[in-house]
Write a structure and sequence with these properties.
26 strands, 1026 residues, 5 domains, alpha+beta, 9-stranded antiparallel beta sheet
Length: 1026
């Protein structure tokens, strides 16, 4: 074996890296289990525990890793395993255009808008382009800059000289900016939901934003906050130095409470102020060793920070904290005065900074009536939107803002007409420019005149959804509504502030167009079913390989176990989110990972039968198998890449797992097994590649595949024809992700009901629209699918649908749970999971699914044609793949309603079909490789006999590679749970049919495509040249 030393080093390195990556998952899980035990079912208490321990060392004797560090590096669980909520929101560009046109009542405008909305459901064009085309159809001479449309007085960027094309460009820019504003607003809200590792991302090329909240316990609050309109405000501020005496007195009062019988009421106060967004640029980050507390006379008295390593400093801080329980939570805003060279409180509204984990305690003190009495009644403390990482953890900035007499802000943000950012010409960094309408400019003029005249000059806080993004000091009166905010902003901070300022400009509401909620009980069941299927599949494959290949099979088993370590370690190192289809991908990898060993072992057995020595046979076996292994796995990798491009959510999780699994499988099969064989050979150990019962299996197998090919064509043709007839008469049972609709998974308190009766009762509530009701994973669980009001986006309408569902199901409960308990996904009774997919999402998904299948077939054709240097190989393989896809889909139409499990065609089934394409071509490549080898060795042999001989010689490897995969799929089908049963069935049928087509369709069809005649012509040309 060449480069043996390097290979050994690489294997050890990968193994250690995998163990290291996985260790973070085990550590974070242990901390979370400790938190659960401590909280005893109290979610708020559990979150507080994790917040408090977030920056403490939990791992590493010689390295420093906190819980937050390990959490960032762990293998995440998807919503279908952990429970939680997945929401896709769409920014309503039609409503934005309506608002930009000053809510015009023009008949052509409104009709064009409705026509554009209808076409947008099936088009990938930009909505503004669609709208403009529809408006031109109604009025070919339309002038978009006219006052009737977008040329009104409030639209300063459009004049009567602006061309239609320029107006369209401006509208597109406004739409793009509205999406950015919505993203920024949502980003600032997601930390309110109290979940770990929330995810928000803008979907590429769409007006959509995806929000994933694993483990969320209050979906209704999530819906309300996500759909709420952003509120931009300008708030008056306090000079923080004027409040220092009050804070010191309040701190002493807290100390008195703590030393006495009474305790400040912090426990009952929930922290609703902590959110996550973009850090402000006008905050001075103060290092811990320069923080000075109220009452100190100089820098020498600064309090040490809790994170100081020096033991004396820590002791000093502990003493300070004991005597100052409230003030010790805050690192006050202190800096060096360049004139006096003394540490002083920095003028302005910034009180200081506080660790995020301490905000709950601090808020509790400030809300206690006994503490509030020390402060002005109009004082309102606000926080920055995003924590700043510093020594000891993540810090938020505290601002001292002031309410007006009516308890409101100085001015609402809807007066802002535009905002932008640019390089600061008078200094470093960027500055932000803001324009206001006439009404706002007049009010802003009075406010700025008043603030600029104060000594010291006062600041005005820019607040979005209760969070302060900036608090610029007013230097002078601004009479015309055009303001410049300087502050040495970074590019990102300036962009964020400009985006925030435009949040109040025009309404661009976000609408929930897709939603999935999975209760924790359903997630736990999915984990248990997934783990059971993994364990059983692994055991079955290990036993089969040892049975069929003897001691060599044990080597393959060792490679498989190594592969699992490498696969899980790689997934963890990439912080991959593991979903239920992802577990199915892992199980599928078990079967596919031994495929390479099967190909190698079968080659070695052939070499041994030819009388070669063991060492030579192993060397030759590896060398000759490489071509088939690489070709077969490249095609599967291409399929996984297509799935990653076109898939979303759990389907993408399946694709990532499959992709990584293929790579780790190749590494394990080629290197691990070879190293073990080298060690055994050097130790003079015997290495049998079979047991007595399997030694000559399939060696004398002879079947006339070519002669019987027309019989196979008829069998396949009949099934495909039956599938077409079924498709046009019965159709497919499309999942909601492909056709739109609602899905509810409901847990009953008994099993004494009929699903038909249930469907009729729900239909009464759903205004005559009868849903589909089926048992789901147990006798007391049902899955309900309906299109009732699935296109509504308002929260009240969603609540009404749930209430109607409850009323329909109430008679089937032995004990009425009540509506509140029924709709709570965490209650264990009633709704366990819910999903809604709007029509636009469903249309896009259908389109992407079709593109994915076509792209996969096209890529396979090109690859095979290129690799085997003949279009007949490519065409034969592609026809066989189409054959596999058609038969797999035919089963879903023919058998739906006749089998005791759901045969819904959804994204997971499309993923399975694409996997079938990749796997089937893998088998076909193995067969084609042997055909190519036989044709090259026997240039003048009878063509049909050579094809038959090649096919018969691959029977053992074809059967074994397919069988190992099929048995793990049977295990997944039986034990993997109801959520992936349909996907397992599709893979089971598809891979079984793919094995059949590789032998009986793909190769024989080349003869009917003229391969035999082509070979004869080549032989005749060669003879003439000779």
């Amino acid at each position: 074996m060449q480069n043996k030393g390097f290979v050994q080093f690489l294997v050890v390195l990968v193994a250690l890296a995998s163990l290291w990556s996985l260790s973070h998952t085990f550590v974070s899980r242990k901390v979370e289990n400790d938190a659960k035990s401590y909280a005893n079912g109290d979610a708020a208490k559990e979150r507080l525990y994790l917040d408090s321990i977030g920056d403490q060392q939990v791992f590493g004797k010689y390295t420093y890793f906190t819980y937050n560090d390990s959490k960032r590096r762990e293998l995440n669980l998807g919503l279908d395993l952990k429970g939680g909520m997945n929401v896709t929101l769409e920014v309503s560009v039609p409503k934005l255009l309506k608002a930009l046109a000053n809510n015009t009542e023009d008949a052509n405008f409104n009709k064009a808008l409705e026509n554009a909305k209808a076409e947008a459901k099936t088009s990938n064009q930009n909505f503004v382009d669609i709208f403009y085309a529809k408006l031109k159809e109604l009025d070919p001479k339309v002038v978009l800059a006219s006052p009737a449309y977008f040329g009104h007085k409030d639209q300063t960027s459009i004049t009567n000289k602006t061309s239609n094309d320029e107006v369209v460009a401006i509208l597109k820019k406004e739409a793009e900016e509205s999406i950015e504003r919505s993203f920024e607003v949502l980003n600032s809200r997601i930390d309110q939901f109290g979940v770990t590792q929330p995810n928000i991302q803008r979907l590429q090329g769409k007006d959509r934003i995806l929000v994933e909240l694993p483990g969320v316990t209050d979906p209704e609050r999530v819906r309300s906050l996500l759909a709420a309109t952003a509120k931009l405000e300008f708030w008056e501020t306090y000079e923080m130095r004027s409040l220092l005496d009050e804070f010191e007195k309040a701190d002493q009062e807290v100390l008195r409470f703590k030393n006495g019988a009474a305790t400040a009421s912090t426990a009952a106060v929930s922290d609703t102020t902590l959110k996550d967004s973009t850090a402000t640029a006008d905050v001075t980050a103060v290092s811990a060793d320069k923080i000075q507390m109220p009452g100190d006379s100089g820098a020498q008295a600064a309090s040490p920070a809790p994170g100081d390593s020096d033991a004396i400093a820590k002791q000093q801080f502990d003493e300070y904290k004991k005597n100052n329980p409230m003030l010790s939570l805050v690192q006050f805003n202190i800096g060096l005065n360049p004139e006096t060279q003394q540490q002083e409180y920095i003028p302005g509204p910034i009180l200081g900074m506080i660790l995020t984990k301490d905000t709950a305690e601090f808020n509790g003190y400030m809300r206690d009536p006994r503490i509030k009495s020390f402060f002005p009644a109009d004082l309102r403390l606000m926080y920055s939107p995003k924590p700043i990482l510093g020594g000891g953890g993540a810090y938020l900035t505290i601002y001292t803002t002031k309410e007006t007499r009516k308890g409101k802000s100085l001015m609402d943000g809807d007066v802002v007409t535009d905002a932008s950012f640019e390089k600061n010409p008078n200094g470093s960094g960027f500055m932000v420019t803001m324009q206001m309408n006439r009404e706002g400019a007049e009010k802003w003029s009075r406010i700025t005149e008043e603030k600029a005249a104060k000594k010291p000059q006062e600041a005005v806080a820019i607040v979005l959804d209760g969070k302060v993004y900036s608090a610029p000091t007013i230097n002078q009166k601004i009479p015309n509504g055009s303001s410049q905010i300087t502050g040495n902003f970074s590019f990102e901070d300036a962009k964020t502030l400009a985006t925030v300022l435009k949040a109040g400009k025009l309404p661009a509401p976000t609408e929930i167009i897709e939603e999935a909620v999975v209760g924790p009980s359903l997630g736990e069941q999915a984990i248990n079913a997934g783990l059971l299927s993994v364990v059983i599949a692994l055991v079955v494959v290990l036993i089969y390989m040892a049975f069929y290949y003897g001691k060599a099979g044990l080597v393959a088993d060792a490679a498989l176990v190594s592969n699992i370590l490498f696969l899980m370690g790689t997934l963890a190192s990439l912080s991959t989110t593991l979903t239920l289809p992802g577990i199915a991908g892992i199980v599928l990898t078990f079967g596919m990972s031994v495929d390479a060993n099967v190909l190698i072992f079968e080659r070695i057995r052939e070499e041994l039968r030819e009388g070669k020595g063991l060492r030579m046979a192993i060397s030759e076996g590896y060398s000759k198998a490489y071509s088939s292994i690489i070709d077969g796995n490249v095609t599967t990798i291409l399929t996984a890449l297509i799935l990653m491009i076109f898939g979303a959510g759990p389907v993408k999780g399946f694709a990532v797992t499959l992709f990584i699994g293929i790579l780790t499988s190749l590494f394990s099969a080629i290197f691990i097994s070879r190293l073990i064989f080298e060690w055994m050979l050097n130790a003079k150990k015997d290495i049998p590649f079979s047991i007595k019962a399997t030694a000559n299996a399939f060696t004398n197998f002879k079947f006339d595949f070519v002669g019987k090919r027309k019989m196979f064509y008829v069998i396949s043709g009949v099934i495909i024809l039956a599938g077409f007839v079924s498709f046009f008469t019965r159709g497919f049972n499309l999942g909601v992700d492909l056709q739109g609709g609602r899905t509810f998974t409901v847990t009953m308190d008994n099993a004494e009901f009929k699903t038909d009766d249930m469907a009729k009762a729900i239909a009464v509530q759903f205004e005559g629209m009868e849903p589909q009701v089926k048992l789901f994973g147990g006798n007391n669980k049902v899955k309900i699918v309906s299109k009732y009001k699935y296109d509504i986006t308002d929260l009240q309408g969603e609540e009404d649908v749930k209430h109607r569902l409850y009323e329909g199901l109430k008679p089937f409960y032995k004990q009425d749970p009540g509506f509140e308990k029924f709709k709570d996904e965490n209650s264990g009774i009633g709704l366990s999971a819910a999903e809604k997919v709007g029509p636009s999402i469903a249309g896009d998904t259908r389109q992407q699914s079709v593109y994915a299948v076509i792209a996969s077939l096209a890529i396979m054709f090109v690859y095979i044609m290129f690799r085997f240097q003949g279009w007949r190989f490519g065409f034969g393989a592609t026809l066989a793949l189409a054959h596999d896809v058609l038969i797999t889909l035919a089963m879903f139409s023919l058998l739906d309603g006749f089998v005791p499990f759901s045969l819904e065609v959804d994204q997971a089934i499309i993923a399975a079909v694409l996997t079938v394409i990749g796997y089937s071509i893998n088998d076909t490549v193995v067969v084609f490789d042997r055909i190519r080898e036989y044709l090259a060795e026997n240039r003048r042999g009878p063509f049909r006999e050579l094809i038959n001989a090649a096919l018969n010689s691959t029977i053992s490897r074809t059967i074994n590679t397919s069988f190992t995969t099929l048995i793990v799929l049977v295990v997944t089908f039986l034990f993997g749970g109801p959520a992936i049963k349909g996907m397992s069935f599709a893979l089971l049928v598809g891979i079984g049919v793919g094995t059949y087509s590789s032998l009986c369709i793909a190769s024989p069809i080349m003869i009917d495509l003229g391969a035999e005649k082509s070979r004869k012509k080549e032989e005749e040309k060669a003879a003439v040249k000779a």
